[in-house]
């Protein structure tokens, strides 16, 4: 097992090894090396310390993905604060919830462009907090003399981060992370995807997601630069990543597919000339997407895995895995996670038998902030119930088949939404798909398919959809009774489909 080190210790080791290597590039062409980052973080830490932020302070922040934001994270890590990064899409209601539950002493927000109303936010928060606002530019950060700083934190397994689940439920849960737990997932990312200092990793998602911290620690481990993106737009992202020679793009299936569409718009050239692979997880991937990327963009296609806010990387594929493994599975569990599959009757599932995926181990978060949520998700032996359904094959690879709540019960038969989505995605004119169960007096639930059409293509019709399923030779219960064609399927900031929104809209 890797030696337990804090965020700051990992940074110090990287600075000692490659001080002048490039570490970060953002869309404003702000760049910083590892040694410059360390020095900037120390100076900002001193500036924050003067204002009252110190070891154990609870600091929430809602900032765009820029070099300055990452410097701020480093400064807070140097002080030993407990950080609560808040994704930019959260508004007053969600942000107030985070501030209340984490008992935040401080909220840091941008001086310009912050969408929240301060008076409204304060009215929603039960306890007082101090608001610090500045433009996220390295030249505008509060600075001080590093000689005034206390000693850096020394305990790698202390809770230093609180990340909230991505909001596919009505009440997000605060996962308590440690430097050590996240460093284990970062180590797995580097090892499974063979990331080296020669790579350039493009981040398609907000840095305030737990994946931002994983990738930051991976950078400390491998010495490669991160190419940051403030907000995802496929054309702008592709141009930005190409300009800076990105080799690996991190995100999820929705980002893979959007960049693939950009490639299809320019069939005479490679839109990412240095492309080696997509890397990500957080949402199911249709198996055909890997082969499409492989054929049209090259490299190793999609190195997809299985992760969540509670454990950023649970399973991951290896660059040397066969294409059927890359396309159809989430890979093998990382070394620091113990994984089991439990049937609905509480019995351990056999090989290739579907059940709920559960896990425990040092790479897992240290539980939820809310004791009730913690008690509901973790058993007495420390096993975390993910709510995901899947199976492990004879070679140890995990395949996710759906969510417990995504099982549609139609006339007493269990129907997997993910399986139906995979079949629909294989239709040549379908670009995106989500399948939900809707209340139905006759059936209990009916199967509703929500699809978007590929650019320039006619949307699939209902009769055509039925014939598509019949040609796939699946049981009749899996053929959707309802088809909805939409312009876009609602997703959160990390690309996860908001199925509860669809159910509310369509019921």
Give the end-to-end Cα distance, rounded to a whole number of Å: 49 Å
Shape call: globular
For the secondary structure, the number of strands is 24
CATH architecture classification name of the domain at 7-186: 3-Layer(aba) Sandwich
Mean pLDDT: 93
Could you give the order of strands across the largest sheet? 2-1-10-9-11-12-13-14-15
State the secondary-structure class: alpha/beta
Number of H/I helices: 15
Low-confidence stretches: none
Percent of residues in helices comes to: 25-40%
Strand content of the residues, in percent?
Answer: 15-25%
How would you describe this structure to a colleague?
The chain is of the alpha/beta class and 507 residues long. Among the domains are: 7-186, Rossmann fold (3-Layer(aba) Sandwich), CATH 3.40.50.980; 411-506, GMP Synthetase, Chain A, domain 3 (2-Layer Sandwich), CATH 3.30.300. 32% of the residues lie in helices and 24% in strands. It has 15 helices and 24 strands. The chain has helices spanning 7-17, 34-51, 67-79, 92-102, 118-124, 179-192, 210-222, 234-243, 253-265, 287-296, 323-328, 371-377, 417-425, 462-471, 499-506, and strands spanning 22-25, 31-33, 58-61, 82-85, 106-109, 130-133, 159-164, 174-178, 201-203, 226-227, 248-251, 277-280, 302-308, 311-316, 332-333, 338-342, 355-360, 384-392, 398-403, 407-410, 413-416, 430-440, 444-453, 482-485. The strands form six sheets. It has a nine-stranded mixed beta sheet, sandwiched between helices. Strands 4-3-5-6 form a four-stranded parallel beta sheet, with helices on both faces. β5, α5 (118-124) and β6 (130-133) form a beta-alpha-beta unit. α8 packs across α9. It is globular and about 70 Å long. The termini are far apart. The model has no long low-confidence stretch (mean pLDDT 93).
């Amino acid at each position: 097992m890797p030696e337990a080190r804090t965020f700051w210790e990992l940074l110090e080791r990287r600075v000692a090894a490659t001080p002048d290597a490039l570490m970060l590039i953002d869309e404003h062409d702000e760049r910083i090396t590892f040694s410059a980052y360390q020095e900037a973080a120390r100076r900002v830490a001193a500036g924050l310390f003067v204002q009252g932020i110190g070891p154990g302070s609870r600091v929430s922040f809602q900032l765009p993905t820029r070099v300055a934001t990452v410097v701020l994270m480093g400064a807070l890590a140097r002080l030993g604060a407990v950080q609560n990064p808040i994704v930019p899409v959260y508004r007053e209601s969600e942000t107030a919830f985070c501030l209340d539950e984490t008992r935040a002493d401080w909220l840091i927000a941008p001086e310009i462009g912050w969408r929240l109303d301060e008076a409204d936010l304060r009215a929603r928060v039960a306890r007082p907090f101090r608001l610090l606002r500045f433009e996220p530019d390295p030249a505008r950060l509060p600075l001080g003399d590093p000689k005034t700083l206390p000693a850096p934190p020394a305990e790698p397994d202390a809770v230093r981060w609180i990340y909230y689940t991505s909001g596919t439920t009505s009440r997000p849960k605060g996962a308590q992370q440690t430097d050590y737990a996240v460093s284990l997932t970062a180590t797995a990312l580097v090892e499974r995807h063979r990331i080296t200092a020669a790579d350039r990793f493009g981040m398609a998602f907000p840095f305030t997601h737990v994946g931002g911290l994983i990738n930051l620690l991976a950078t400390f481990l491998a010495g490669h630069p991160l190419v940051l993106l403030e907000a995802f737009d496929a054309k702008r992202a592709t141009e930005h990543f190409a300009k800076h020679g990105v080799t690996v793009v991190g995100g999820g299936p929705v980002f893979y597919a959007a960049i693939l569409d950009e490639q299809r718009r320019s069939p005479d050239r490679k839109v990412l000339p240095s492309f080696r692979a997509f890397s990500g997880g957080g949402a199911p991937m249709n198996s055909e997407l890997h082969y499409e990327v492989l054929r049209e963009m090259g490299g190793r296609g999609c190195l997809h895995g299985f992760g969540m806010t509670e454990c950023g990387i649970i399973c991951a594929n290896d660059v040397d895995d066969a294409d059927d493994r890359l396309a159809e599975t989430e890979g093998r569990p990382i070394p620091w996670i113990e994984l089991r599959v439990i049937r609905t009757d509480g019995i351990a599932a056999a090989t290739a038998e579907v059940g709920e995926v559960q896990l425990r181990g040092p790479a897992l978060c240290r539980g939820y902030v809310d004791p009730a949520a913690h008690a509901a998700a973790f058993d007495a032996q420390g096993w975390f119930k993910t709510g995901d359904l899947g199976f492990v094959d004879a070679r140890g690879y995990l395949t996710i088949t759906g969510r417990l709540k995504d099982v549609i019960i139609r006339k007493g038969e269990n129907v997997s939404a993910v399986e139906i989505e995979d079949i629909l995605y294989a239709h040549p004119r379908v670009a995106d798909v989500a399948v939900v169960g809707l209340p139905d007096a006759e059936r209990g639930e009916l199967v509703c398919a929500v699809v978007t059409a590929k650019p320039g293509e006619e949307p699939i019709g209902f009769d055509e959809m039925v014939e598509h399923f019949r040609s796939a030779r699946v049981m009749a219960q899996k053929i959707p009774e309802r088809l909805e064609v939409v312009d876009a399927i609602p997703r959160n900031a990390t690309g996860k489909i908001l199925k509860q929104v669809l159910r509310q809209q369509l019921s």
